[in-house]
Amino acid sequence: MYWLIGLITLSVLGLIGVGVTLQLQPVPRPRRWLRGVLGTNVFVFVGGLVGILFLGAQEVLAQTGAAAGATEISTGLGLALIGIGVPTGLAAIGAGIAVGPVGAASLAIIAEKPEMFGRTLIYLGLAEGIAIYGLVVTILLLGKIG
């Protein structure tokens, strides 16, 4: 199992190294070997993740004695906790979708008229408020489980 983690770590470090090298010395036209190296790197990384997923699942399922001291969580409680987390996730996605165009438009208008900074900040805050609403709903739902 540790060799898989080491393999993934080397893959990520290699990918970071290639990125830094290409940033410092850009290649005008990527060579064929570079595409092959990056493709192999991604293949090794994904293969390592799949290997960890399957090997890790077997190790976790094999350890029943260590989890005996922990509190038992029923299936219903687990599903309720997942359901409580969904509003925060969806609200964060919605806020990201809203903040992207609003932020781009804000930067464009501030470049032309710097005095519009206050208004654009309000619009950006309204778009970001969507994520806060999702967080508030999650906190209210957590209070219902207790």
CATH architecture of the largest domain: Up-down Bundle
CATH superfamily of the largest domain: F1F0 ATP synthase subunit C
Q: How big a fraction of the residues is strand?
A: under 5%
Question: What is the radius of gyration?
Answer: 24 Å
**Outline, from the CA principal axes?**
flat
User: What's the number of structural domains?
Assistant: 2
Q: Count of helical segments?
A: 4
CATH class category label of the largest domain: Mainly Alpha
Low-pLDDT stretches are: none
Q: For the record, give the distance between the C-alpha atoms at the N and C termini, rounded to a whole number.
A: 38 Å
Assembly context of the chains: single chain
Record field, number of beta strands: 0
What is the ordering of alpha helices and beta strands? HHHH
Largest sheet: none
Helix content: over 70%
Which structural category do the helix and sheet elements fall into? mainly alpha
pLDDT average, as an integer?
82
Q: What is the fold-level CATH name, i.e. the topology of the largest domain?
A: F1FO ATP Synthase
Question: How do you describe this structure in short?
Answer:
Helix content is 83%, strand content 0%.
Write the layout of secondary structure elements.
Elements: H1 2-24, H2 32-62, H3 75-112, H4 117-145
Describe the structure.
The chain is mainly alpha-helical. The chain folds into 2 domains: 2-61, no CATH class; 74-145, F1F0 ATP synthase subunit C (F1FO ATP Synthase, Up-down Bundle). Helix content is 83%, strand content 0%. It has 4 helices and no strands. The longest helix has 38 residues, at 75-112. It is flat and about 50 Å long. The chain starts with a helix and ends with a helix. 5% of the residues are buried. The model has no long low-confidence stretch (mean pLDDT 82).
